[in-house]
Amino acid sequence: MRGLLLFVFVLFLTTNLWSQAFSTKDFLFASSLPEKKFENYLSKKKFMPAGSKSTNGTIVNIYNLKERRKKKDTLQRIRSIETFQTKNSLSFTYITSLKDEYLENLKTLKETGFFCGNETDTAVMIFQKKNLTVKASFKTNADGDTLYSLFYNHQELPSPETIQFAEDLLQFYSHEYLRSVFGERNAIKDVYYFSEKEISKCTVLFPKTSRQAVFIWEDQENFCKPAYLIVGGNTNTASSVNYDGVIDENVWHSKEGVYSGMSLHSLIKLNGTSFKFYGKNTEAPYMIVPEKTGAVDFKKNRIVLGCLNPTSSQLLNNSTVRADQILSDNLGIYVFMMMLLPSSANNK
Q1: pTM of the prediction?
Q2: pLDDT by residue (tens digit) across 296-317?
Q3: Number of domains composing the chain
Q4: Does any domain span residue 249?
Q5: Lowest-confidence pick of 40-49, 138-147, 210-219, 334-343
Q6: What does the DSSP assignment read for 295-344?
Q7: Same domain, 151 and 168
Q8: Which of 126, 155, 184 lies at the terminal end of a domain, its last residue?
């Protein structure tokens, strides 16, 4: 991971910064460096330690580029690097006062295959390639000087073997992360139809299989930041409109034990007590009221039920229905779909 950081780090700083190009030999050398030698490597590249700061409880190390300035050179150049380490990622920000250098770096990102969905937003752009993310931005400080920054993040992603439950999929922050781990064929960009008028860009993981899961993105331009994950239900995507094949029953289970096709009786037993769901004529028909009444937290994972015989009970006309009260009507009610929310959204 450290070697990959150094490779991209040098890639960004090719404009008027190094005395020589960064060769394959340099890359192989950098990739073999242990963490303790990282600062020594920066020192050889004339980036000197300039202290540290705490940002949201994380220690950020600062390095400034030491350059020789000519006496006649009145232009103050700012070039610095800020690095920090988290449990699953290594990040740094390169800051420069040179606009041409910043623009050249953006050009390099595009030429090397980084995806950017919001290139028209020149103030903040997000570039992604597999498990690499670069946030490019600029701002003007109090003195009227414009500083340009490239925030780089290299994320360590879980291996497919560690993904056991549906919630585990929410570790993947973007389409590029999914593509990096599961492959291009198993993670496709698509459009999800909630209705004829309401649509959303999405990523379909394992399309048209029993492991299918749909990521609805909060940032639809960049296909990142999951709003929620859909497991089960109808395949309401653009790529499935003309599909006439049979998709096996979804095999994903939640950590609490809920799965698509689970009977209402089994769900009540799993929860340890009854719960309520919205009636068929409401704005959210058959969705379990998002609250925690027992072992299953229906606020964390939104559950939508299906009904094989919706006309055989008048209780379904009510605004809310108690699960235990309608159970004896034998309507064939089951778990139709799960909508899993990221942990950050559960407190909203």
Answers
A1: 0.82
A2: 999 989 999 999 999 889 999 9
A3: 3
A4: no
A5: 40-49
A6: SSBTTTEEEEEEES-TTS-GGGGSSEEEHHHHGGG---EEEEEEEEPPGG
A7: no
A8: 155
- Name the region of 326 (left: φ>0; alpha: ψ -120 to 50; beta: rest): alpha
Contact 224, 216 (CB under 8 A): no
Residue 179, in any domain of the structure: yes
Per-residue pLDDT at 145? 84
Same domain? 23 vs 138: yes
State which of 131, 155, 179 marks the end of a domain. 155
Average pLDDT, the chain: 83
Q: What is the dihedral of CA 239, 244, 248, 250, to 10 degrees?
A: 30
Q: What is the mean pLDDT of residues 221-250?
A: 87
Residues of the domain holding 220: 160-240
Q: 23-32: long-range contacts (C-beta < 8 A, 24 or more apart)?
A: 27/3, 30/2, 30/3, 30/6, 31/2, 31/3, 31/4, 31/6, 31/7, 32/3
Residue 54: strand pairing partners = 59
Are residues 212 and 107 part of one domain? no
